Structure formats: C-alpha cells, structure tokens
Amino acid sequence: MADNLLELAPEFWLALGQTFTMVGISVGAAFLFGTPLGVLLFLTDRGQILERITLHRAINYLVNTVRSLPFVILLVAIIPLTRLIVGTTIGPIAASVPLSLAAIPFFARLVEQSLRELPKGVIEAAVAMGASPVQLVWKVLLNEARGSIVSALTVTSISLLSYSAMAGTVGGGGIGDLAIRFGYYRFQTEVMAATVVLLILLVQLIQFAGNRIAQRLDKK
C-alpha cells in the first residue's frame, strides 16, 4: 500500500498543483468581482445612500439564481462559455471558469452580510461628516468589515476546494480526478483514502490561516 502511494507521488503533486490553480483563480475572481457586487447589493438596498430598489432586486435575483444551481449543472450548462473563453473544456484552467462563476455570487452575498453586521452609527457618522460614496466604501465599509470579509473569503475558499474536487471528476484535473482515476476506476482504496486525508488537511490549513488573518485585522 505504502509503495503504491510512493509510486503515485508525482501524480499527487500534479493533482495538488492543478487544485491550487483552480482554487486560486476562482478565489481571485470571487474577491475581484464579488466584493464590488456585494457592496453594490448593500448600498442599493432600501435606506442606504445609493438606494435603487429596482437595481437591488435585479442583482439580488441574479445572485440567488446562480447560487441556486447545483455546481454540476452549472459546470455542464456553461460549457459553450468555457470553450469560448479558454478554448477548451478540459483541464484546471477550463474548470476555473464555472468555479469562478459559482464563487462570485456566493462571495458577494457573504460580503453583503458582513456589511449589514456593521453598526449603523458608524455609517451614519461617516455620511454626516460628508463622506462621498467612494470614501464611505473604502474608508468605512471595507475597512471596518475587513476581518469579516477575510472570514467570508475563507469560507468561499473551502467551498471552492470541494467544488474543484467535483470538477476533477469531469475532466478538470486536480485531486478529484486523481481519486476517480486511481481510487475508483482501479479500485485502489488507499489512493481514495489519501485524497480524502489531503482534502481534510487543506481545509484545516485554509481555515487556520483565515482565522489568524481575520483576528489580526480585527485587532488593528
């Protein structure tokens, strides 16, 4: 059993690198596009400084629609879009497209919730002092909610790690692909067990790092 795992060590390193590629790209997309989307959801709601109820409802509906789709269905449904963007539907880069599409509304909703947890007095004080919408976002909202947003990014990263394993079963590569090819098709249960342990360790590491960063930001 141990010898078999040692022989597959290069495969494990390759799968780990592919998983990091998928998760890294999709987490980056979630942060880059999900943060402003979450801020917009918050600011356009009733009673906020950019109140636009129609716009808020439209964005809210779009976010809920994408979040309601099971990832496997989303993965298959946007195959034409994936092929259009990266030129293929196979490999970690291709799998990053549906992963990113799933991550953006998920993280946006968490950002919105983080902003809603801020004391109303902080926002009202900033507005009373004449803060512009841009200043309110950068100097108040995102600054005050930074620890909570990091925690939200941690949750998103862990969810994407599990999604990436699922993407691997349909040609995305990564740890999921390794588990299917060797653990399932070849009945090598030790490989399946090793991939499960590896995923658990990665989740623990991401959660630990996210908690430490969030705690440090909250103390500043």
Automatic annotation (TrEMBL):
Keyword presence, NADP: no
* Keyword terms, alphabetized: Cell membrane, Membrane, Transmembrane, Transmembrane helix, Transport
Domain ABC transmembrane type-1 positions: 16-210
Q: Which Gene3D superfamilies does this one have?
A: MetI-like (1.10.3720.10)
Q: Name one GO biological process term.
A: D-methionine transmembrane transport
Query: Is ATP-binding found in the keyword set?
Result: no
Annotated membrane topology is:
Multi-pass membrane protein
TM stretches of this protein: 20-44, 65-86, 92-111, 149-171, 191-210
Cellular component terms, GO, for this chain's entry? plasma membrane
Its annotated compartments are:
Cell membrane
Q: Which family does it belong to?
A: Belongs to the binding-protein-dependent transport system permease family. CysTW subfamily.
- What protein is this chain from? ABC transporter permease
Species, as recorded: Brevibacillus thermoruber
Which taxonomic lineage is given here? Bacteria, Bacillati, Bacillota, Bacilli, Bacillales
